[in-house]
């Protein structure tokens, strides 16, 4: 019961954080650019993380920095910045996919395939824009609910497979916060995902000694449950892939190439 309350409070806190970062032009660069740069030497000396946590921290804060620059400067009119945002988001997925690939459990290879499908079907830079009609100048990315739900299931399965204790429970709140926002503003999901995940990571880095003293809950990891859930998520991802690929168009191109080769 206590863990459920903690997850709910984290969920509410992340919704509040997302709103604050949307409405404050000063808070975002302070928390995600200035503070990490100042405290980076301390973190390097004090913390001994594996490569994944450092990579995730830098990719998330860099991604948020790009969203901030894009929304508050004339760079929003440059196509290349949207391409860079796409690359950073794809790298963010690739980090977790690689971590699963290097895992000791071969079952996690199923989630690797799902991660690759998410990268392949990730909507391109042309689906991005800054909402100039909004005072907050929100970053909008036209993603389907199918892609968002597939990503959410895949990402939670990734955390469940690698940190099945308190980490997977807290991550329910992190994923639920951006998904809740997407229910009302689908194109703002990516912005909300960046702010909520970034907030979670920054707080965790700043207060790691405190989190280290939180009693670990019993692991709810079950390999059979993981395997079944992994296959179900893969099926959802394969249906996403099938919808994203223009098979008729591919067939026409193959037929055209074959006809030219026979001439």
Give the strand tally.
Answer: 2
Radius of gyration: 20 Å
Strand order of the largest sheet: 1-2
Strand content: under 5%
Largest sheet at a glance?
A: 2 strands, antiparallel
Determine the number of helices (DSSP H or I, runs of at least 4 residues). 11
Give the tally of structural domains.
1
Order of helices and strands: HHHHHEEHHHHHH
Shape: globular
What do you see in this structure?
This protein has eleven helices and two strands. The chain is mainly α and 263 residues long. It has one domain. Strands 1-2 form a two-stranded antiparallel sheet. Helix 2 packs across helix 8 and helix 6 packs antiparallel against helix 10 (223-244). It is globular and about 70 Å long. The N and C termini lie far apart (72 Å).
What does the secondary structure layout of this molecule look like, with pairings?
Elements: H1 2-23, H2 27-46, H3 51-72, H4 79-101, H5 109-121, E1 128-130, E2 139-141, H6 145-162, H7 166-184, H8 189-206, H9 208-212, H10 223-244, H11 247-262
Antiparallel strand pairs: 1-2
Give a short overview.
It is built from eleven helices and two strands.
Properties at a glance:
263 residues, mainly alpha, two-stranded antiparallel sheet, 11 helices
